[in-house]
Amino acid sequence: MENITNNTLTIYHGGDEFITNPEIRIGKYTKDFYWGFYFTILPEQAERLALRNIRKSVVSVYNCTISAQLNVKQFEKMSDEWLDFIVMCRNGGSHGYDLVEGPMADDTIYNYVQDFVEGKISRNAFWELARFRYPTHQISFHTARALACLTYERSYNLR
């Protein structure tokens, strides 16, 4: 994975509404990389996420040039460091990054993460199960400074 700082990326957000001005919302549950606003560079992944919504399925598209002034954490692939970071975040631990990028613990992977946290499977068993999953990607924005790097382009309906 190349360094994302100062590169312009097209990123996608799948959901149930048009979002022209993303904001960080504190929800009931923390996510992979803690509370933030999540995107992907994979349009098909954003579409899969959007289609999980019953009411409406929308993909919003943005351009993003990530400033070198931001505190960025990148995970090139699933690793022990990535797993430990997700476990920490999912358990309510915070971090000081403006932006975090790396693989996504989708529903199946997250079930493996939860089994690992609860001691139902070992770290080695987690990696055996996780290595067969398709590639995923997420980039999460955790501060207003990070969100300022975004330029809304368009949104489209899937249904």
UniProtKB/TrEMBL annotation:
Alphabetized InterPro entries for the sequence: DUF3990
Domain of life: Bacteria
UniProt protein name: DUF3990 domain-containing protein
Lineage: Bacteria, Bacillati, Bacillota, Clostridia, Eubacteriales
